Amino acid sequence: MANHLDLEEQEQLDQLKHFWNAWGNTISSVALAVAVALAARDSLVCFQRKSPPKARRRRAVTTINRRIIANLYFPNIFLDNRRGG
């Protein structure tokens, strides 16, 4: 097929080959870096969606700790509230 190209097409093909030899590695590197950055961002977003926020976890642990401590020092408070008194 290359034999059937006319001179203008052959010149365009030679220009494209020259351009790719000069800039091919740079273009490929940039494309790879963009793909890796997008994959990393998507992975981070997915990870953040699956894990609960730290503040929510900390608040839950603090609430549980307060209830345990209050139950140890003031055990009758919770019993009185359940009875409506």
Structural class: mainly alpha
Q: What is the count of distinct domains?
A: 2
Number of helices: 3
Strand content: under 5%
Order of helices and strands: HHH
Question: How can the largest sheet be summarized?
Answer: none
Indicate the mean pLDDT. 78
Count the beta strands: 0
Q: Rg, please? A: 34 Å
Portion in helices: over 70%
Termini separation comes to 96 Å
Low-confidence stretches: none
Coarse shape: rod-shaped
Could you characterize what this model shows?
There is one protein chain. With 85 residues, the protein is mostly helical. It has 2 domains: 1-51; 52-85, no CATH class. The protein has 3 helices and no strands. The chain has helices spanning 7-50, 54-73, 75-83. It is rod-shaped and about 100 Å long. It starts with 6 loop residues before the first helix and ends with a helix. The model has no long low-confidence stretch (mean pLDDT 78).
